[in-house]
Amino acid sequence: MKQLADAKHYHLTGESEEGSVNERLRLFVVEVESEVETKPEAETKVDGDVRGFDSGNTGSGSQLAGIVFVRAEWVPSYITSQSHISISDTERVSSIYLEVMVSDPLIGKGAGKALIEGVCEFGRSLGKTVLYVDGWAGNEKKLIRGKLSGFGRYYEKQGFQLIADFSLPRKGKVPWLGALIKMNI
To answer: How far is Cα 3 from Cα 36, in angstroms, rounded to an integer?
Structure first.
């Protein structure tokens, strides 16, 4: 995955490809210690189903609890193309955008919150004042506002506010329903 390779290169060298679509991309990862013994021949998967990986030196492993892709001074084109949503250049420059967040096996255990807190800290270190996120707004916005699998009002509980709803056409399918939300950091 190019984003992971670019992020690793930046982490090791402090340099990114100028003008690259990934120039402002940063990744945050949350791991938890695993009590389960791992097999020495266990494979780390990057492009497939990432569930866990061998820590490499103790025989015990760490489990990937969550990952976030964040970009500074960037808003995706599917948001800027929405005529009813306006993010000025000034707002864009003072913001970071949480592009992708995956927090799997530990719902309710704090991995998502830890990722969001890390992203906010990163944003403040850059002098940014706003964190934008978009998410699925189907199922009556239960992920954003309601109750989904005991997870209720997740983003609102983290301090996000709804900015606007939007929809994206999908060929041969019903539109994808989304919501743009933000948090002052």
So the answer is: 29
